[in-house]
Amino acid sequence: MNIQNEGILDASPGDPNGYVTKDGMWAAVPWGNKFIIIHKGKQVHTCNNYKTAKRYIQKAAKGASVSTLDEFL
Fold first, then answer.
1. What pLDDT is attached to residue 73?
2. How far apart are CA 19 and CA 57, in angstroms?
3. How many domains does the chain have?
4. 13 is a domain residue
5. CA distance 52 to 57
6. Which of 14, 28, 41, 59 could form a disulfide linkage to 35, CB 3.0–4.6 angstroms apart?
7. φ, ψ dihedrals at 53, nearest 5°
């Protein structure tokens, strides 16, 4: 079910519903109070808020070195 303008009645709306890069390779998906970073269909990181999630994706998309869960598994 898609609810349009769900934050319109909230005086101080929280973080957006998520973030996806233009190429669709990276996404930040809300999960409770956190955001899960997904790259090529796999969960690679978890962030505490939208701002941190978006910054992580922008850094990773530029080719900068970021840690992933695969390194530890």
1. 47
2. 9
3. 1
4. no
5. 9
6. 28
7. -65, -45
Does a structural domain hold residue 35? Answer: yes
pLDDT of residue 18: 87
d(CA 31, CA 36): 6
Question: pLDDT digits over 14-73, tens only?
Answer: 667 888 988 889 999 999 889 999 999 999 999 999 999 999 999 998 875 555 555 544
Domain residues for 68?
19-72
SS3 58: helix
For the cut 70, the answer to whether the pLDDT of residue 1 exceeds it is no
In a domain, 32, yes or no: yes
Per-residue buried b or exposed e for 37-52, using 16+ beta carbons within 10 Å of the residue's own CB: bbbeeeebbebeebeb
Report how far residue 73's alpha carbon sits from residue 48's, in angstroms, rounded to the nearest whole number: 22
pTM for this model (two decimals): 0.66
